[in-house]
Amino acid sequence: MWRKLSIVCISILFSSIFPAYSSAPENTPRLGSFSDQLDIFELRQEGLSEEVVELFVEGVTFRLHVPKSYDPDHPPGVIVYISPAPKGHPREEWIESLNRHNLIWIGIDGSGNDQIVKLRIVETLASLNYVKQRYTLNPDRHYLAGVSGGGRVSSVFMNNFQNIFTGAIYMIGVNPWENHTQPDEQTQKDVRFVFLTGSKDFNRKETRQVYRQYKKLGIERIKLLDYKGMKHYWPSAERFEESIRYLDSFFNETTE
What we know:
Blueprint: H1 4-17, E1 32-38, H2 40-45, H3 50-53, E2 60-66, E3 77-82, H4 95-100, E4 103-108, H5 117-134, E5 142-147, H6 149-160, E6 167-171, H7 185-189, E7 192-200, H8 204-216, E8 222-231, H9 237-248
Parallel strand pairs: 3-4, 3-5, 5-6, 6-7, 7-8
Antiparallel strand pairs: 1-2, 2-4
Helix pairs in contact: 1-5
């Protein structure tokens, strides 16, 4: 799926995005569920490089949920979501888990499976950049999640940009770890991965194969959630909750 040229281009974009991170989040951050549409001028103010801004000719609409209990003295984690569908908001039944586990959610509208992978990778970086400029975050709870084709793109990201996220949830879709990279020691020892599928999910066989591949690559913190009767569909609140609990089960060991 990847071509060497695409990887080079993404690496250049990646290196230009991260210097924009701010150490001084906004004093009055927005809470609850909301959207924020940024045009090209506003994206430039975010500190994104011109190469990145030019990819978003129509601007970007971020979809967020921030727990109303947000407290920078008890910083939340963040889930950056890659959607298979046109909307990037969390499912209504997942919001309780986000609040319970003190997690900010961010996705992007118009970033579904019809978009090219390169753009969805850049949108993932831009989403993390957006949250880090506005909120104080727990550095050990930067999670990436995707459903179906979004899960596949999440796995492409985790293969090619290690040590940006400390955990990932691949829901009913995941790609094999690519041969041109190998998991580094931190990925093998510290990063958490959840593979979520079900007996009626047409991606089940591949999901289980990739789970075994990760184990063979020496990745230690991995969990397979294989639910009887589950179809190729968004997980229920309980199944989403179980994924979060696994990712969070390790974070006290390595929180900075």
